[in-house]
Design goal:
Structural class: alpha/beta
CATH class of the largest domain: Alpha Beta
Largest sheet: 7 strands, mixed
Strand content: 25-35%
Number of domains: 2
Number of strands: 17
Oligomer: single chain
Order of helices and strands: EEEHHHEEEEEEHHEHEHEHEHEHEHEHE
CATH topology of the largest domain: Quinone Oxidoreductase, Chain A, domain 1
Low-confidence stretches: none
Length: 370
């Protein structure tokens, strides 16, 4: 039986603010699995906008700017108005990191010991029993509980999803948050084969996942991204790429579509929102899971009313979504988009590179010995 250390390396968030609120520790107590939980030895953990949003307190209603502006200026009002998703107050210290890939090394009471040794990825949504859409009883891994920027982490047994494939741990750590979010975004619109979908923020983790998942549904994909990322997105399955810096984004989308689009998927928000709405055809559908360029947008209600539009938000992911994603990975229908890896000790640098948004896909920290 593997002998486990009493302490571990971890990056600990001690409060809302800049990167100085992240503290590297090599003496943090190793967690113990409670009843119904497993202990995972983390091999890799991906970065997400959630990490930045929670650190800066961007989820607070008092914050009006985009993610990048919040990082630059700080979110001084976050603590007073709730700095976690769902208007919750964030508790510290907290180990962040939602996208874990690793091995189960111990189990708590009530969990079959045969699970020890399984290679797993974590489903980050810890849904409430019964009404899984009850936000008050649904937690997010690395937000309301400690996550994966550490050598070890614990999670409910059912949220540690076994996976059998040849991908590396770093590649597997690109999937959980991005692909489950993208699948939820698309599912809310009931995208059909042959329809045209436009994906804003197409070069990020959720965007690159959405391209692949939309193609699996037989849709035609228009990606919005920097022109420099065109080749990478075409290789993932996008039919065309619209430059996000276009003087008239709505017109560029319509030209690429040949008419109005059926579905718009958005993680950008801000000024992009209304241009996506305007590009939709009669009866079009819009779904959003993020607003990295800003949470506030002007909205002409006539577009929604007289074009019979459907608008949905997409946050809490339905149960079973990660299990379906894992099956698609194992069948090689989905590919990881790993932009770059960093050692755990370099998490702050990794976040800086992540926020520069010059990459395509996902950035991951690995737990190899330093």
């Amino acid at each position: 039986m593997q002998m486990l250390p009493d302490s571990m390396r971890a990056f600990v968030l001690v409060g809302h603010g800049g990167p100085e609120m992240l503290r590297y520790r090599d003496d943090w107590p190793r967690p113990q699995p409670r009843t119904g939980e497993v202990l995972i030895q983390v091999q890799a953990c991906g970065l997400n906008n959630t990490d930045i949003n929670t650190r800066t307190g961007w989820y607070a209603k008092a914050v009006k700017s985009g993610t990048a502006e919040s990082v630059a200026r700080g979110c001084d009002d976050a603590a007073a108005s709730g700095g976690a998703w769902g208007e919750r107050t964030q508790h510290f210290p907290r180990i962040q990191g939602a996208d874990v890939a690793g091995n189960i090394v111990a189990v708590g009471d009530g969990v079959d010991r045969a699970r020890i040794g399984e290679h797993v990825i974590v489903d980050p949504w810890l849904l409430g029993r019964g009404d899984w859409m009850d936000a008050a009883r649904s937690d997010y891994f690395g937000s309301e509980c400690d996550g994966g920027f550490a050598d070890f982490t614990t999670v409910r047994s059912e949220n540690a999803v076994a996976i059998n494939c040849a991908l590396s741990a770093a590649e597997l750590a690109t999937f959980p948050c991005a692909y489950s979010t993208a699948e939820n975004l698309i599912s809310r619109t009931e995208l059909k084969p042959g329809e045209t979908v436009v994906v804003a923020g197409a070069s990020g983790g959720v965007g690159t996942a959405a391209i692949q998942l939309c193609r699996l549904r037989g849709a035609r994909v228009i990606a919005i991204a920097a022109a420099s990322k065109r080749a990478a997105l075409i290789s993932l399955g996008a039919h065309c790429v619209v430059d996000r810096g276009s003087d008239n984004l709505e017109a560029a989308i319509r030209e690429a579509a040949g008419a109005g689009v059926d579905v718009a998927l958005d993680v950008v928000g801000g000024s992009t929102f209304m241009q996506l709405i305007n590009s939709l055809r009669q009866g079009g559908r819009y779904s959003a899971s993020g607003a990295i360029s800003g949470p506030l947008a002007e909205f002409d209600l006539r577009q929604m009313i007289y074009k019979d539009l459907q608008l949905t938000g997409a946050t809490i992911v339905p149960p079973g979504t990660m299990q379906r994603i894992v099956r698609l990975i194992e069948q090689r229908f989905l590919r990881p988009v790993l932009a770059r890896t960093f050692a755990l000790r370099d998490l702050v640098e990794a976040q800086e590179v992540f926020m520069a948004k010059k990459h395509v896909g996902n950035i991951v920290v690995t737990m190899s010995a330093e």
